[in-house]
Predict the structure.
Amino acid sequence: MARYFTDEHEWIEVDGDSATVGITDYAQGQLGDIVFVELPAAGTALSKGGDAAVVESVKAASDVYAPIAGEVTEGNSALEDDPALVNTAPEGDGWFFRMTIADASQLDGLMDEAAYKAFCDSL
Amino acid sequence: MLSGLLMSEETEFEEPETGTLPLDAWHRGKRARMVEFAGYWMPIQYEGIVAEHEWTRTSAGLFDVSHMGQLLLSGPDLDAAVETVLPIDLSTLKLGMQRYSLLLDEDGGVLDDLMVSRWADCLYLVVNGATKWDDIGHLRESLPDDITLNHLDEQALLALQGPRAVDALARHAKGDTPLCELTFMKFGHYTIAGHAVTIARAGYTGEDGFEISLPGKAAAEIADLLCGEPEVKPIGLGARDSLRLEAGLPLYGHDLSPETSPIEAGLVFGINKRRRTAGGYPGAARINREIVDGTARRWVGLKLEGRLPAREGAEVFVGDARVGVVTSGGFSPTLGAPIAMAYVASEHAGTGSALEILVRSKRLAATVVPTPFVPHRYHRGK
């Protein structure tokens, strides 16, 4: 399994021909206390860089974008009851949705963990 | 994805350069996240909005509100002059009292909301930070030339808010009137660590608390003293906003503007009784008519079903009819539910009225509820 990162602070973990998407620890720290996550329904077609989800913190709503194109297969239902999972386990149990991979070559433009860490350090 | 995060912090008034306030380095030393607000760098949060919100509700929070404008008015026939500008009755504002008032335009629209205090030989005003330059211009233009307006721009302003604020502040504030005898909307002159300060028992959180006007040069020393007390932590603008929303208090530029009248906003108490019949202030004709006849829309509290908050600008519906718009909205940490304030057509503004709020493509069920959402706990004395 390989994990990639976007410059919009999403992560995507690839497992065979499907992937899991969430937001990074850096992102949750910037957003603060998360009170609601609006997830895409299974079957939703996503385009690379297009709107995929909305995360609501106490202060504001922020868009979450699809790192690559594909189709949503499952949203993380645990976030309905406990959206704070995104704060406590952003890169684990606080994942947002799972999706198919329409074009694996789109992963090539994303960052690996070391590159993403350097990117955050530069902000 | 972080671009929308600070949208409600952006000032609507263009200032040439972002200013710094006396506690700028102090906040950064406390690892505050700084944002631009009202033309200044200000702390939006330290450890997190919800933790800071809850700390203020249960203990005491220290807020830096030095961006606000502190003004002194003095001169001959001061009361009569000020009553031509504000709908206040200064004959009932005695020494040591503070009162909420409104700066209105000729049509009765709200230019700002403010506090007025009676000092020994002058009136002390606290106005909003984002509007202070316009307010100063408006007051200078509207008041007679022999009234002096002194902008206290070297003063800082701190608010200490919460049920244990009195315990922490009483250990440091020395004055003729013991702090515990100061009741809500009263003020007095005190010293803290030898520095002359004025302390008003007032605030913007719904809790008991104080607003302390102090020399900017002493701000860091006094902030350190207060935060050295076990009850006190520094609190950012984020929690200030969620606290005032729970308290049902309007935020200028969002809930109040030149397009809103104070009667629509439920601020009739800001039009003092004598002025409601006598008039003689800007916008009096419209406002005194609205006091008698009512208004077509009213500013009301809404409680939402579910957990998805509705934000400023969200439209309110009954069936297909658009009946209002949200002016402030967010998630209430105390209630664990989303709450909002909205202007709603009066026929749908009664308590219990069932409405829907459009958020993105969803219609959220909402009910008109009395405000404050969280009861005020002001210290009004016996």
Observations:
- The mean pLDDT of chain B is 95.
- The radius of gyration of chain B is 20 Å.
- Chain B touches chain A through 26 residues (CB under 8 Å).
- The first strand of chain B starts at residue 33 and ends at 37.
